[in-house]
């Protein structure tokens, strides 16, 4: 066999080994990606549940019920500490 044929055979063997190594690393990366995507989906579901609980707990009706249960009452009489300003001054021209 000539040196060129030996070189090509060696080159093909090295490339074949390199291809096997790359395919092996890609297959494990795909498994890791699948695992991470499953974890992301589970976390997103958990976040949705928590967001619904927060919305329910912070609703006006829930806060009002908790305030009533704590003994707080609603005050219908409004007290204003400021004196209303006059709308216009009589006898003066604004122009």
Question: What can you see in these coordinates?
Answer:
This protein is mostly helical. It has one domain. Helices cover 68% and strands 0% of the residues. It is built from two helices and no strands. The protein starts with a helix and ends in a 26-residue tail after the last helix.
By DSSP, the count of extended strands is 0
Order of helical and strand elements: HH
**Approximately how much helix is present in the residues?**
55-70%
Q: Name the shape in a single word.
A: rod-shaped
Largest sheet: none
Rg from Cα: 38 Å
Number of helices: 2
Q: What is the multimeric organization of the chains shown?
A: single chain
Overall number of domains:
1
The rounded distance between the terminal residues' Cα atoms is 111 Å
pLDDT under 50 segments (min length 5)? none
What percent strand? under 5%
Write down the overall mean pLDDT. 84
Helix and strand content put the structural class at mainly alpha
């Amino acid at each position: 066999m000539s040196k060129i044929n030996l070189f090509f055979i060696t080159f093909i063997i090295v490339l074949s080994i390199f291809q096997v190594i790359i395919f092996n690393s890609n297959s494990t990366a795909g498994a890791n990606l699948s695992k991470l995507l499953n974890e992301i989906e589970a976390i997103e579901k958990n976040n949705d549940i928590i967001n619904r609980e927060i919305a329910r707990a912070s609703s006006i009706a829930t806060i009002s019920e908790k305030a009533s249960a704590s003994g707080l009452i609603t005050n219908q009489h409004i007290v204003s500490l400021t004196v209303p300003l006059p709308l216009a001054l009589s006898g003066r021209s604004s122009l």
